[in-house]
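ok new one. same drill as before - structure tokens go in, u give me an amino acid for every spot. 525 of them this time. try not to just spam alanines like last time pls lmao
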């Protein structure tokens, strides 16, 4: 038999746990009469739970955690990202679609057959298209440059493509020669790890075609023509360097601070909190963030806390060395804000500005893996006013291994030791396969008082509250309970409204639970 019943308290949540471990004895077996009736007893729970034992999972964009700071627990809410932008999406590069048409005129007017070689050197260029940046250099990451050449040259010829502005990884300038006797010739160049130098701030790459025609009979039909079609699909870069135009992008994000909304209802007031907005930037150029809206929202209580009543410009630091990060932070303080676990969120809208001064002669770099990330972090010391807390959960309950027909009755014995600063009003419901309630364990609900705290010492623990409860279940009722497939636990925090509702949560606060079962077995002599 293995059953589990969870008790969790995070932001005053609590968790009961049933486990199959048999540990300390709850009953005095020496007093058991076995000559007429046989009895057996076992512990099915012997656990100790504290707030710091549990992780609180949220959606993929955020996470909750608890941190012990000098024995005072602090709830941490972190966004994995509010906004994230990669360098290779800020700037996209491609080769401008182009056709190059070259004309080879007659040399000195000669049109007759000759064995002389006719040499031509023609300068032209390729244009790199990039949105919003004037380059002076770049390291290309991937892509294949293809040049398809068609010509009407009717003699053997040689074409050399060269450029002092296109360098391989060994910094050797490009120079490729093709010989042909046909009307078509192709250049295919893998530009991975290729350095490009752009003169004159025009995103233009100078190239040169050297053409040598060697006549071998037949007439020379000048002028000759060479048509070149260029393509460079899937071009990517490793880094770019140059001047950037001013670029802006508006973004909006609703950051949910909801958690356990399917298993709990919590309403409270946090006394203090901090919200940190953090910009991590390894884009090597100036960035700024105009915060239009940064508001804490609670739709249930109609509570909206504007963290900044006016537009705020956050200038983000940027690194001077490729690959490094620069971090910029801004902190906002909150006091006395109402929280509801199922519908509290931060509304965040901003305008991101890249290179606010535009092209001003300054040059910057950007890498393909560069990141511009915005995070938010909320720190809440667990010092709150508790208005309402209800926790409910279902767990599996299997008792198929017990033969109910041989039992006279069973006694459930639960011992609880509570050192939290609130009381507990709990009930366990037994559910059948259709999730219908077939019975409950306690009549009435089980009440455990809050621990004794010292108001003169920051409400630290003086003495926990303990209770022991025994419940006898006769065979007829036991048969109904044993049909259950799940247990539904419902628990309410009890707070005396006449007392100060300031509740401090320390790591020393725990809930200890021991649950045992003792059965009376019908025996025939």
């Amino acid at each position: 038999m293995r059953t589990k019943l969870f008790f969790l308290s995070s932001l005053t949540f609590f968790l009961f746990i049933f486990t199959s471990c048999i540990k300390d004895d709850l009953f005095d077996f020496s007093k058991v009469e076995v000559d007429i009736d046989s009895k057996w007893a076992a512990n099915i729970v012997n656990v100790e739970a504290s707030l710091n034992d549990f992780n609180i999972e949220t959606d993929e964009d955020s996470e909750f955690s608890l941190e012990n700071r000098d024995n005072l627990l602090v709830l941490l809410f972190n966004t994995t990202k509010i906004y994230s932008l990669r360098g290779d999406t800020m700037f996209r590069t491609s080769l401008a679609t182009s056709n190059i048409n070259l004309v080879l005129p007659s040399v000195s007017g000669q049109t007759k057959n000759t064995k002389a070689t006719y040499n031509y050197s023609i300068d032209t260029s390729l244009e790199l298209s990039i949105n919003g940046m004037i380059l002076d250099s770049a390291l290309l990451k991937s892509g294949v440059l293809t040049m398809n050449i068609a010509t009407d040259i009717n003699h053997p010829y040689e074409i050399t493509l060269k450029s002092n502005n296109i360098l391989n990884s060994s910094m050797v300038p490009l120079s490729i020669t093709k010989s042909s006797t046909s009307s078509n010739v192709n250049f295919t160049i893998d530009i991975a790890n290729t350095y490009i130098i752009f003169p004159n701030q025009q995103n233009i790459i100078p190239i040169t075609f050297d053409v040598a025609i060697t006549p071998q009979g037949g007439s020379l039909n000048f002028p000759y023509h060479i048509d070149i079609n260029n393509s460079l699909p899937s071009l990517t870069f490793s880094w770019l360097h140059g001047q950037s135009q001013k670029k802006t992008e508006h973004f909006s994000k609703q950051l949910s601070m909801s958690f356990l909304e399917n298993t709990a209802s919590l309403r409270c007031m946090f006394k203090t909190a901090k919200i940190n907005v953090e910009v991590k930037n390894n884009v090597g150029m100036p960035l700024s963030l105009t915060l239009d809206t940064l508001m804490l929202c609670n739709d249930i209580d109609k509570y909206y806390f504007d963290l900044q009543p006016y537009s705020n410009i956050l200038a983000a630091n940027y690194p001077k060395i490729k690959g490094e990060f620069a971090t910029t932070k801004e902190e906002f303080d909150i006091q006395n804000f109402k929280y509801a676990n199922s519908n509290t969120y931060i509304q965040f809208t901003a305008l991101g500005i890249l290179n606010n001064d535009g092209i001003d002669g300054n040059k910057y770099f950007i890498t393909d893996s560069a990141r511009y990330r915005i995070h938010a972090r909320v720190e809440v010391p667990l010092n709150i006013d508790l208005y309402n807390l209800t926790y409910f959960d279902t767990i599996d309950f299997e008792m198929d291994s017990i033969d109910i027909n041989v039992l006279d009755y069973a006694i459930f014995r639960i011992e609880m030791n509570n050192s939290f600063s609130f009381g507990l009003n709990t009930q366990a419901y037994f559910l059948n396969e259709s999730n219908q309630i077939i019975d409950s364990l306690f009549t009435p609900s089980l009440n455990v008082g809050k621990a004794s705290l010292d108001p003169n010492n920051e409400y630290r623990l003086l003495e926990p509250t303990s209770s022991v409860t025994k419940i006898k279940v006769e065979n007829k009722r036991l048969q109904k309970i044993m049909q259950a497939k799940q247990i539904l636990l419902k628990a309410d925090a009890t707070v005396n409204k006449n007392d100060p509702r300031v509740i401090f949560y320390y790591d020393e606060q725990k809930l200890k639970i021991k649950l045992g079962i003792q059965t009376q077995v019908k025996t025939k002599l």
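Residues 1-38 have pLDDT under 50 and may be disordered. and btw The radius of gyration is 39 Å.
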